[in-house]
Amino acid sequence: MRKWVLPDSVEDVLAPEAARMESARRALLDAFGVHAPRYELVNPPLVEHLEALLTGTGRDLEASTFKLIDPLSGRMLGVRPDITPQVARIDAAYFDSDAARRFCYAGEVLRTHASLGASRALTQVGAELFGVGDVSGDVEIIKLLISSARAVNATPLLIDCGHVGVFKALAKYFDLSPRAVAQVDAALAAKSTSEIAAIKPLSGEAKVAFTKLATLFGPANAVLADARKTLPANAEINTALDQLETVCDAVETAGAKCSVDLADLPGLDYHTGLVFVAYLSETSHVVARGGRYDGVGEVFMQTGKGRAATGFSFVDLRALVEVTSDK
């Protein structure tokens, strides 16, 4: 009897785990559907023309995207590695008004690479809010994340928040070249103050500021207070810190814990404001990721104007079910 072998990091889901995943998927979508205002369910296709998947800020996903030729048209297609850019396309392509719109989704994504111990074939469930450009949109999304996580017993949560606006404001303040931006970004990702000190194009003042930024992580109130005292006086930085303070207050009010990491800059070319990762408290398990990504659907709009956008996704429904099924 031939033994079929699946590709690396691609797995079958068998009973009863498949039933638990379906129950969790339904519970999350129901939570989105009863939220006021309601989040409407959409279901984008598994494959699209490659340029649609990777347009604008979605190009951060190019290395994760499986590519194939469409035998009907001869055009290059991509298998989606993330659903968020598709929902941005739906918002931009099918609606004419500037009104706020809310969508949710659940579906399979496939990625060319997987982190250690993870799968390349994931079930992603999420929610996106378009057309609300101020911090109230971020607060709404954070509250929705916390309430929907409760629906699948993913509690208590620790939400670690950052804001790419702080880094971008510093890069503008010190007039960094694109190369220097990339070097500092890499050093901050490693939390390496020695790497920052070794970046030759940086002035002494810039090295001091970015070295400080690398240390600004921990309890929200303490980090924000320290940042206000030690980072350069700058209106854009102050605005970003004010937004973070508002979001962190909302997290605590909604019953989750909050921390801040100003050196965490995931998808620097994709995100435009708040970024966050939700963990099960006192564990390293990532429940969800999200943040603000204004302008992602710009290329699809006839007006050429980008839309304000913020959202989150439960990144791996199977892993979420595994860690919550015994609670």
Secondary-structure map:
Layout: H1 17-34, E1 40-41, E2 47-49, H2 50-53, E3 66-69, E4 76-79, H3 84-94, E5 101-110, E6 121-130, H4 135-151, E7 157-163, H5 164-173, H6 178-189, H7 193-197, H8 204-215, E8 217-219, H9 220-230, H10 235-253, E9 257-261, E10 274-280, E11 286-292, E12 309-314, H11 317-324
Parallel strand pairs: 1-5, 7-9
Antiparallel strand pairs: 2-4, 3-4, 5-6, 6-12, 7-10, 8-9, 10-11, 11-12
Helix pairs in contact: 1-4, 1-11, 4-10, 5-10, 6-8, 9-10
Explain what you see.
- By secondary structure, this protein is α+β, with helices and mostly antiparallel strands.
- The chain has two domains: about 1-155 and about 305-325, BirA Bifunctional Protein, domain 2; about 155-280, 2-Layer Sandwich (BirA Bifunctional Protein, domain 2).
- It is built from eleven helices and twelve strands.
- The chain has helices at about 15-35, 50-55, 85-95, 135-150, 165-175, 180-190, 195, 205-215, 220-230, 235-255, 315-325, and strands at about 40, 45-50, 65-70, 75-80, 100-110, 120-130, 155-165, 215-220, 255-260, 275-280, 285-290, 310-315.
- Strands 1-5-6-12-11-10-7-9-8 form a nine-stranded mixed sheet, with helices on both faces.
- β10 and β11 form a beta hairpin.
- The model has no long low-confidence stretch (mean pLDDT about 95).
